[in-house]
Amino acid sequence: MEHSNHTRVTEFIMQGRFDHPHHQRQLFGLFLCIYIAVVMGNSLIIVSIVIHPPLHTPMYFFIANLALIDILCTSSVVPKMLENLMQEKKTISFGGCITQLFVLTSSLGTELLLLTVMSYDRYAAICYPLHYVKLMRKEICICLAVSVWAVGTINSFVSMLLVLRLDFCRPNLIQHFFCDFPTILALSCSSTYINEIMMFMADIFLAMGNFLLTTMFYCFIIITILKIQSSKGKQRAFSTCSSHLFVVTLYYSTIIYIYIQPTSSNSLDKNKMVAIMYTLVTPILNPVIYSLRNKEVKDICLLRVLALLWTP
């Protein structure tokens, strides 16, 4: 009887950080250019790795997976944000919000796991170079990649099912430019205890667990590099993991920034800006940091671009 008194929510109103009417066209152009750059840059990396045999190595196999994750992560948020920038009423349907939740959270969870797997790859390459081919053979790499995608997807799917069981009877105003679990749970008039427990467990196992594993791998890597006698050898060993270390630092710093500060209206505004980091900035930087700084990959990508431009 109580359930029948709840109003079924069919859409949510988005109140993001980009609501000034005089800036919306400029922001639309800016975010559209960034989105195109993210999709094209990461797609070029994937195509180059797939069709060029010298890049069929464990490291580039995982980089291709990371590029695909970045495309999915950005595509789950930006197209709807671009649509709302050009509309006076900024809304998203309930189904669209749930879909966005699923794709975004599965992408973020999968990326956390993948960064840890890539840390292990660098650990194996630097600490056990003679056994690297055996430790990271093709079957193991495929198994690791499938496991990463499966765990990230299952975690997001379970969280999404727990959201679908909730009733929403409060004002349907989302204080963000995309749907995420904290903002959606704040609108529910049902008990969100189970959802919060699930989120806490996901934070412990996915965020903290992967952070500790990544830190452990890099502690072993640093110890091994310090044992190398020649400075040239140290520099070469460090260069093989510097790109990944930079991306890991950038990714985890945004997560830590969001979760260590107290909740307030000011921190919520800052969180919206930080969200831009992992939905737009990081996906556009990853191809540059990981691959385009590599001369071989840069030459391959340049050849592909020239071939596309000259194709009649």
TrEMBL record:
The signal peptide, as residue positions, is none
Which PROSITE patterns does the protein's record reference?
A: G_PROTEIN_RECEP_F1_1 (PS00237), G_PROTEIN_RECEP_F1_2 (PS50262)
Membrane topology qualifier = Multi-pass membrane protein
Annotated transmembrane regions: 27-51, 58-78, 98-120, 140-164, 204-226, 238-260, 272-292
**Recorded GO MF terms:** G protein-coupled receptor activity; olfactory receptor activity
Q: What top-level branch of life does the organism fall under?
A: Eukaryota
- Record-annotated G-protein coupled receptors family 1 profile domain positions: 41-290
Q: Give the record's GO CC terms.
A: plasma membrane
- InterPro entries referenced in this protein's UniProt entry, alphabetically: GPCR_Rhodpsn, GPCR_Rhodpsn_7TM, Olfact_rcpt, Olfactory_GPCR
Read off the Pfam families from this record. Answer: 7tm_4 (PF13853)
Q: Indicate where this protein is primarily found.
A: membrane
Q: Where in the cell is it found?
A: Cell membrane
Provide this UniProt record's keywords sorted from A to Z.
Cell membrane, G-protein coupled receptor, Membrane, Olfaction, Receptor, Sensory transduction, Transducer, Transmembrane, Transmembrane helix
Checking PANTHER family in the record gives:
OLFACTORY RECEPTOR
Q: Family, per the entry?
A: Belongs to the G-protein coupled receptor 1 family.
| Name of the protein in its database record | Olfactory receptor
Report the source organism.
Gopherus agassizii
From which lineage does this chain's organism come? Eukaryota, Metazoa, Chordata, Craniata, Vertebrata
